[in-house]
Amino acid sequence: MNNLIPFKRNLLICFTFLLAPMAMAQIPQVPNELRFADLTIKINEQARREIQSDVDALYRSPTYFRAKAERVNLYLPLVERELRDAGVPTDFKYLVIQESSLIGDAVSTSNAVGFWQFKQGTAEEVFLRVDNQVDDRKNIVTSTQGAARYLKKNNAQFDNWMCALVAYQMGLGGARGYFGTQYNGKKVVEIDRNSHWYFKKFLAHKVAFESPTVMLASNSGYLEEIRIQGPTTLKALAPRLGVTEAHLKEYNKWTAKGNIPDDRPYSIVYIREGTPQARPAIAETLTTPQPAVTTVSNVSNTAYPKVTGNQTNATQPNQIKVNNIEGIKAANTTTQEKFTDQIGIRENKFRRINDLEKNEKIEAGQYYYTKAKKTRAEEEQHVVLPGETLWSISQMYGIKLSALKAKNRINNDRDLKAGMMLNLREHLSRGEEIPIIPATEYKKVIAYNNQQPTTSSTTTVNSSQNATTPVYSPAPSSSSPKVTIHTVIQGENLFRISQKYGVTVNDIKKWNRLSNNDIKIGQKLTINKP
User: Fold this and answer.
1) 3-state secondary structure of 385
2) By C-alpha distance, which of 404, 419, 417 is closest to 374?
3) Most buried by CB count within 10 Å: which residue of 198, 237, 398, 524?
4) pLDDT at residue 75 in the model
5) Backbone Cα Rg of the chain
């Protein structure tokens, strides 16, 4: 019996040596020319050898590579989808592998966190929530959305995706100093020994993980995403999904204590057995990004106005900020004179700050500013939806009405049309017309905005996501509705009214027999509030 041990050991060694050449044969080779995004990348021999060395290193440990390849097969379909929806070339899916090896709670020595390795300040710049309840950097869906916003912002400066990628590592200012304008608008890039190391490292990951070898990773299931509208918990959700609470915590480390807040729908992921339909692990790279004007995720208006501070006392002065400007919420419908007396501000100043006419009423539930609005908004563009006005849009983003009109060369609401893409930061170029997206597209925006709690625990599907991405809403505490009559005020649309009462736009349309989303100021709407 003891004599068999050396024999087995020698057999294992021989078997390992036999497998080694086979493993080496599977290592992809770096070409002299390849495509990245919309660029042709030409690599000289010295740089090619350097990049090949990095590819070889990625394949050096079969165990480590296999573990990473399995994460690639799990996560990259979601990454690719979010990049495509944002109009960012899907080649950037290899960047998330380079940044974190697709480890959701990875932390760097510089305290960058999550899948895309955001520091807190940068995360907040791209509208990711980072606090003691939620860390969006650890959510594969929302962090990818943030990365896409950051990459698009970088590319807007260079019109060159290679420079945009390097700016991801260096920062926009650093990349401007490094590249200058030499690559702006160029579609052919030559890589040599002096090219930036970060881009060469990225090319190594692209070559390594777009190889068919990656497809050999055998996952026992696939990553399913659902969108959850809280408040609820992973513990309560687990039985509905047929998994354990521990399983949900493992794949959703973005929620610190397993709680899902109620401020917006959150993406929950878990492993589902079987094979997803028509969802490849790494699909073919798109070389031409989709136009931003047709991308629902870029033009949805759900994040505004952004209200921060002590929202429980929002109707009191000096308690909240609206779009980072001091503001207040009207508790009751009243006159400007009474309202300004209550909050201690001169009526003329208040009217000037909020672009109000002299006899306009203060409407209950409306947010107003107590400090001057800005000349530019955080967001770049806004899609006009039915029922919106220039004033309501200016209030939504905290931009001066005069600035909004000037940027778009539009003066009257009668010239405003649903589907218009209004500029919120930059002026239209001379002779440039306001772009208008077709009704089929702005209706997608409306559908995307309708991600609110339903009045039952049934599953609904978010039309801006894949059909396999349902939105769950917890069942209401009472099934007995209370009828409320709502009077439409200036700046409201059906979506904002639905948010106020916690119902859906379709519910409001059904209750009031509305054939479309158009409503008028003063119109009475019946709301069956749960």
Assistant:
1) coil
2) 404
3) 398
4) 93
5) 27
